[in-house]
Amino acid sequence: MKFFIDTANLDQIREAQDLGVLDGVTTNPSLMAKEGITGRNNILKHYVDICNIVNGDVSAEVIATDFEGMVKEGEELAELHPQIVVKIPMIKDGVKALKYFTDNGIRTNCTLVFSAGQALLAAKAGATYVSPFIGRLDDISTDGLELIADIRLIYDNYGFETQILAASIRHTMHIINCAKIGADVMTGPLSSIEGLLNHPLTDSGLKKFLEDYKKGN
Ligand code: E4P
């Protein structure tokens, strides 16, 4: 399973990269705004800065919602750096744009996916990644993990190569359950990745080992 971090915060990206388990980064317009990155040139520069920190794919989202606009913006984003994956929303023109980018060798991440039907369309259009938002489904009392399982089944039935990128991850159990189901990638906050480290028996066991060592030395 690949681990992506879902942030535009350079310090957190560095911290995850230093841990040695990071495979990529996802961003979205809200995450960029949260870091105070505004204005086209600053946004483009920020994507390059992210690419220079991480070894792996960096999703950069288009703002346009019409086919021509998405193609223009996506091509500009893809030219920024070979690690860029163009993030396209699951709307009608988005599906057309996914197909255009597939045909032109530009990698894509289909975002804002909330149903198996949408994921099927994204795969048909050749998306590199599909991003089902499981946390946001859980927020409205709908089982996000069930969606990941449905998409896994459908993609395996037909051998679709689109990678399932479980997004909107909120906590460690999302990651573990997505890994059990067979999601190809997960993207979450640094806290969800670092949370995997924790176990009280590790802490108490290490404490005891160090105490015992001190007794004998
Ligand atoms: C995915 O690419 C999105 O950026 C992200 O996972 C959305 O997560 P949220 O629901 O926590 O905003």
TrEMBL record:
Compartment(s) where it occurs, according to its Swiss-Prot or TrEMBL record: Cytoplasm
Main location: cytoplasm
GO biological process: carbohydrate metabolic process; ketone catabolic process; pentose-phosphate shunt
Pathway(s) it belongs to: Carbohydrate degradation; pentose phosphate pathway; D-glyceraldehyde 3-phosphate and beta-D-fructose 6-phosphate from D-ribose 5-phosphate and D-xylulose 5-phosphate (non-oxidative stage): step 2/3
Record key words, sorted: Cytoplasm, Pentose shunt, Schiff base, Transferase
GO molecular function: aldehyde-lyase activity; transaldolase activity
Name of the top EC class for this enzyme: transferase
Catalytic residue list: K87 (schiff-base intermediate with substrate)
Enzymatic reactions: D-sedoheptulose 7-phosphate + D-glyceraldehyde 3-phosphate = D-erythrose 4-phosphate + beta-D-fructose 6-phosphate
Enzyme Commission number(s) of this protein: 2.2.1.2
Superkingdom to which the source organism belongs: Bacteria
CDD domains membership: Transaldolase_FSA (cd00956)
Record keyword Chloroplast present: no
CC per GO annotation: cytoplasm
PANTHER family: FRUCTOSE-6-PHOSPHATE ALDOLASE 1-RELATED, TRANSALDOLASE
Annotated family: Belongs to the transaldolase family. Type 3B subfamily.
Role: Transaldolase is important for the balance of metabolites in the pentose-phosphate pathway.
NCBIfam families membership: fsa_talC_mipB
Name the UniProt record assigns to this protein: Probable transaldolase
Organism this protein belongs to: Aequorivita vitellina
Gene: fsa
